[in-house]
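re: ur question from yesterday

yeah so i grabbed the chain u mentioned. its 217 aa long if i counted rite. heres the sequnce exactly as i have it in my notes:
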Amino acid sequence: MAVPLLCLQISGCMRARVDESREQATAIASTESVVVLAKPQIEGTGAESQFLDCVSDRLVGSKPAIHVHPNESFTDKLFPWFEPGTVPSRPEQVASILAQPGVSEQVAATGVRYVVWLDGGTRRIDGGGSLACGIAPGAAGCIGFGWWEKESAYEATIWDLKQSRSVGSVGANVTGTSAVIGAILPLPFIARVQGAACQRLGDQLHGFLAGASGQVQ
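ran it thru and got these structure tokens back, copy pasting raw so excuse formatting
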């Protein structure tokens, strides 16, 4: 248990990796916005709604801020073209959707230039130890030691609606070891991997959208 014990000294041990693949230059204008959507899956949807909100807040809170259009508002205005059963599977299909009566006008009204498709999740990948808690007359407490490791792996694929093509992707992978020590009261040391993945992915995505200058035009 050397790794969990070492992580106790830094209140949760985490390792992070960020990847970026760019297919085309990007430079979002101050009059343009993005929408962050869960990438549709064969069964269900992609990334969790709270992670979508976290990444959106990260883009808005960064400097300079990038305007993010509410995802539910976007899908409602573009109904039924971005519903799970009708959403385009390739960016090239966006052109045919925009050719439908009134669709391009609805997109223009939202100001959305880029669609960010988020996929991924957080899962437990390892763990061990034993922790027991109990209550006795006049006393209560825990004894033992337990640890677990989680992984948050997410990928954002960016589509340019103006050009009906993919412009690249950004990915973040964070693993972290958490532990609980039972010493009368349980002492938790938690590695918040999902929050770290949101921060890394959001910051990398902001730089990607802002382009080489790092500024919103």
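noticed a couple things. The radius of gyration is 22 Å. also The chain has one domain: 2-210.
anyway ttyl
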